TrEMBL record:
Membrane topology recorded in Swiss-Prot or TrEMBL: Multi-pass membrane protein
Any one Gene Ontology BP term: non-motile cilium assembly
Compartments where located: Cell projection, Cilium; Membrane
PANTHER family according to UniProt: GEO07735P1-RELATED-RELATED, TRANSMEMBRANE PROTEIN 80
Bilayer-crossing regions: 6-30, 42-61, 73-94, 106-129
Gene Ontology CC: ciliary transition zone; membrane
Predominant location category: other
Keywords: Cell projection, Membrane, Transmembrane, Transmembrane helix
InterPro entries: Uncharacterised_TM-17
Name of the protein in question: TMM80 protein
Length: 130
């Protein structure tokens, strides 16, 4: 009953998130050097990025574990953590101090992956329950 498309998407999303984290961190450093980045806003933007990275590890682990063991609880917890990651991603997309076109592109792709992954998780949970 475990979902192969979900497993593949979790794997691809894990690899993409490493790229996303490094690219976003590099852009924040770039923006802090090139633009007049207020010191009061640099720390929250970095904190959101690192909090998102901290959430990503258990989110992916629980997703892998829940799908492979066909357990609803870990998959549901992963789905809940996905909601938190989406909120943080929307912050980086809309409300960080400076938003470049590369930020929009990276965050739009990540949000699309989160949406597709969430749909597959809901379908997998439904298959496990029935």
């Amino acid at each position: 009953l475990s979902s192969l498309p979900l497993q593949i998407l979790l794997y691809v999303n894990g690899i993409y998130y490493i790229f996303y984290f490094l690219a976003t961190l590099a852009m924040i450093i770039y923006k802090s050097q090139v633009f007049s980045y207020p010191d009061d806003f640099l720390a929250p933007d970095l904190a959101v990025l690192f909090l998102m990275a901290i959430l990503e590890v258990p989110r992916l682990y629980l997703g892998f574990k829940g799908n492979l063991t066909e357990a609803e609880v870990p998959l549901g917890l992963s789905l809940g953590l996905t909601v938190g990651s989406v909120v943080l991603c929307v912050y980086l997309l809309l409300w960080q101090t400076y938003v470049l076109w590369a930020d929009v592109l990276l965050n739009a792709l990540l949000l699309s992956a989160y949406g597709l992954e969430s749909g597959l998780k809901v379908m997998a949970i439904a298959a496990f329950v029935s």
